[in-house]
Amino acid sequence: CIFLVFLFCFHRKSLSRSSVRSRMSLKSSKAYNSLQKGTVIWDPKPLQVKKIFEALKKGLNEYLEAHQAELDYLSGRHKDTKRNSRLSFSLSSLQKQIRSVERYIRKLEFHKSKVEELYEAYCIQCRLRDGATNMKHAFSLSPSTKASRESLVELYKNFQECTEDMCFIEGALEVHLGEFHLKMKGLVGFARLCPGDQYEVFVRLGRQKWRLKGKIETDDSQTWDEEEKIFIPNLHEKFEIKVTELRGLATILVGVVTCDSINFFTTKPKAIIVDITELGTIKLQLEVLW
Questions:
Q1: 126-136: pLDDT as tens digits
Q2: Backbone torsions φ then ψ of 172, nearest 5 degrees
Q3: Which of 185, 135, 173 lies closest to 156, judged by CA?
Q4: Where do the DSSP E strands lie in the chain?
Q5: Signal sequence span per UniProt (predicted)?
Q6: How far is CA 260 from CA 45, 57, 100, in A?
Q7: What is the mean pLDDT of the segment spanning 139-162?
Q8: Region 162-184: what's the mean pLDDT?
Q9: In what order do the strands lie in the sheet with 270-275?
């Protein structure tokens, strides 16, 4: 009975794996050059991928609703303009705006469907991987025979292939996460911030880095040598923020914090205020636009 279940799982795995590869072969190999067969495979994180997928889907739905509302408004104006001959000069402009919004809605719908397709394929590979793990455990509890040893070898191979496919899909999904536009809004510290103080803020997301320096002016305003940076979202990495105070040639660490990006997938700019010190005496304020 166990062997029949194994054969069934293996058959489903073969069909699903070929399906995953055929769908993704349409994409440029350049986007996934670090995820090809033969490279080192890390451990996939299904729970994290699920959280990112749900946040991404929610954000895409928000964009669709906002643009659908804009389309409804423009369509209403278009009807009013057609009825009023004195406003015919703006009819052409409205038609162009309507076509533009309709095109963007179609792009968003395709984007959403592609994300859902990738996640569905990811879930299939995840279930097959879990099935292979359970089968390995069942075989390990039974008496060792030549057939069971051969089955264990095959199960281990299937487990590795599922793991590789999951990582491949994770890389494909990351391509559809868009961009985060981070804007520096300044430090908040009340009495802790004095005119003449200089600070360095270092923001990291995986291999992406942003280093900027700022100064507290005499009127308590702040000047920064760079105010905006674009980051590409990452499925597994969190934002790491480090703030140091510059005193001549010396640097004093103010604090290091991490910030999850799940809540950034939204249509409106999101203000982020993080406590840099443990007591919250110095905070960093950023604005994130997805």
A1: 999 999 888 88
A2: -70, -40
A3: 135
A4: 180-188, 198-205, 208-216, 222-224, 228-231, 239-247, 250-259, 270-275, 283-289
A5: 1-16
A6: 15, 17, 34
A7: 83
A8: 94
A9: 228-231, 180-188, 283-289, 270-275
Q: Distance between CA 33 and CA 253 in Å, rounded?
A: 37
| pTM of the complete model | 0.79
Q: Give the integer Cα–Cα distance in Å for 80 and 83.
A: 5
Contact between 284 and 276 (Cβ < 8 Å): yes
Under 8 Å CB-to-CB from 141, ≥6 apart: which residues? none
Can you tell me which residue has the tokens 């590409």?
Answer: 232
> Is the CB of residue 158 less than 8 Å from the CB of residue 13?
yes
Kindly list the distances between the CA atom of residue 112 and the CA atoms of 22, 106, 119, 259, 266, in Å, as whole numbers in the listed order.
20, 10, 11, 26, 14
Is the model's pLDDT at 87 over the cut of 70?
no
Token look-up 């369509």 returns 75
- Tokens 């103080």: give the residue: 197
Tokens of 109: 């719908």
pLDDT digits (tens, 9 = 90+) for 232-275: 999 999 999 999 999 988 899 999 999 999 999 999 999 989 99
**What DSSP state is assigned to residue 149?**
H
Contacts of 193 (CB under 8 A, 6+ apart): 187, 216, 220, 282
Q: What is the DSSP letter of 81?
A: H
| Strand 250-259 versus strand 180-188 pairing type | unpaired
